[in-house]
Inverse folding.
């Protein structure tokens, strides 16, 4: 087993490392020669390469996963799986700082955030270790007293999991932990831009005693590697996180093999602030919802709906705080916002900013690529706030995935609901009010999989997460996630010993 990546050694040499794939419990080279550069978003420099896995690589990984499933993991006890998962949780805790550094180097997130995520990962594996030990079936009363009927929950089989670049380890864990608890094996396709932290995770999983082939990690693009994996006939279940457009293609490819899918897709979430709310708390929540992680979150609160009497006061607070956000080196503790993860995303967001100005939105702050010492080489965009945004503008309709906020005034609760729900997405939303009854009414009325009241961007392994409409289907986290990786089997036991009429049902 390879040792963990030494980032200091990587920085000290000009020689680029090609990261391997993890198949059948081993770090292996790709069957093909095509490689993809991995760029540090802060420096703009290539620091490693990954293989663009071929169909042969994909097949090898799926075969390894199937062999591990049939070879014992699929029939293992919950206690066995839980023991390994708890050992893995300990190793993750011990290596949290290293994993955080690798991820910040790979996708540009602040190390203060990647470290907090890495330190939280053990919670997911400890929580789902408990789930592995409590996968209960049920006894079902039926009309015919001659039968005892009970159900079993069995692992669905080989899972194809596809994770994006914006929060690699967290989104990876949200798929891997419940799938392992259920007794499934996995082939994970990482983003070609951010594969390093998942490969480091695989080494720790092997050290924890996870049998060879239970977890396999392949690298490559969505169009080649991803589609070959999702459409593979040996895959029993697909779990995908990414854009809505890509999710539609995943559904089509998985449908060829009748493989069920869980899709966590895009969002266009609204923060709704009423005049009776705590303005300082609301402003802080708005900043957290759209400027943290440089806005590269599916749950980003990129729409701010404000009751008109407090419109100017709240916007002034948000603009003031946005203008003071310190951008810089993700490894500098003083930095508050890092770069976007890729050059392609930078260009896309800059284009949307140009369109917003052309459409007539009023720029209150930001709106450009960041300039100055410490940011010139990276993919930085200034924290941006637009007012006078209409519902038909591009920045009002499309997911931005950058630090860009649009502001919309409203006058009544009913108007706020209509505006919040005027989107094809339905992933998340926030409501800020000190009126308890109104808060509960709004939580029911906003069409989204998660609604936070007087908070934003909080998660826990026990709480289901997912969206409605164009934001996807199915849920991650909570007991629902384990359910998604299992099949229910009904068992009928004849108790009387009587001979039945073979031509009469029941």
């Amino acid at each position: 087993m390879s040792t963990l990546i030494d980032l200091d050694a990587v920085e000290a040499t000009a020689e680029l490392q090609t990261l391997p794939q993890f198949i059948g419990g081993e770090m292996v080279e790709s069957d093909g020669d095509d490689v993809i550069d991995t760029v540090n978003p802060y420096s703009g420099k290539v620091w490693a390469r990954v293989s663009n896995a071929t169909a042969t690589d994909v097949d090898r990984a799926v075969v390894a996963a199937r062999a591990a499933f049939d070879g014992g993991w699929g029939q293992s006890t919950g206690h066995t799986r839980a023991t390994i998962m708890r050992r893995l949780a300990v190793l993750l805790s011990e290596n949290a700082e290293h994993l955080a550094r690798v991820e910040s180097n790979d996708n540009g997130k602040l190390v203060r955030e990647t470290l907090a995520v890495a330190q939280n990962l053990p919670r997911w594996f400890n929580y789902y270790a408990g789930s592995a030990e409590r996968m209960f079936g049920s006894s079902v009363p039926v009309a015919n007293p001659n039968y005892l009927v009970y159900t079993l929950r069995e692992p669905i089989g080989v899972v194809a999991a596809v994770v994006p670049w914006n929060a690699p380890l967290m989104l990876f864990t949200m798929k891997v932990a419940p799938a392992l608890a259920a007794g499934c094996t996995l082939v994970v396709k990482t983003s070609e831009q951010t594969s390093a932290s998942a490969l480091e995770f695989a080494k720790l999983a092997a050290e924890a005693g996870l049998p060879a082939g239970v977890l396999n990690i392949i690298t490559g693009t969505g169009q080649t590697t991803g589609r070959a994996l999702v459409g593979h006939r040996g895959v029993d279940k697909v779990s995908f996180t990414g854009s809505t457009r890509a999710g539609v293609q995943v559904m089509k490819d998985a449908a060829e093999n009748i493989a069920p899918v869980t899709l966590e897709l895009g969002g266009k979430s609204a923060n709704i602030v009423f005049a009776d709310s705590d303005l300082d708390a609301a402003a802080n929540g708005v900043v957290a919802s759209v400027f943290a992680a440089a806005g590269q979150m599916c749950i980003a609160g990129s729409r701010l709906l404000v009751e008109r009497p407090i419109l100017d006061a709240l916007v002034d607070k948000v603009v003031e705080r946005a203008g003071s956000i310190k951008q810089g080196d993700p490894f500098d503790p003083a930095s508050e916002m890092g770069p976007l993860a890729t050059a392609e995303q930078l260009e896309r967001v800059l284009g949307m900013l140009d369109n917003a100005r052309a459409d007539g939105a009023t720029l209150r702050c930001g709106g450009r690529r960041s300039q100055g010492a410490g940011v010139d080489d990276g993919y930085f965009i200034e924290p941006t706030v637009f007012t006078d945004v209409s519902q038909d503008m591009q920045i009002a309709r499309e997911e931005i995935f950058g630090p860009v906020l649009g502001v919309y005034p409203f006058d009544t609760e009913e108007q706020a609901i209509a505006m919040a729900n005027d989107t094809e997405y339905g992933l998340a939303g926030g409501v800020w009010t000190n009126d308890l009854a109104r808060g509960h009414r709004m939580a029911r009325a906003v069409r989204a999989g998660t609604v936070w009241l007087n908070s934003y961007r909080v998660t826990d392994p026990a709480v289901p997460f997912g969206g409605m409409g164009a934001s996807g289907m199915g849920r991650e986290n909570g007991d629902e996630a384990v359910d998604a990786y299992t099949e229910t089997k009904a068992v009928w036991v004849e108790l009387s010993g009587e001979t039945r009429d073979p031509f009469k049902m029941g």
In short: The mean pLDDT is 96. The chain has two domains: 7-265+471-489, 270-453.
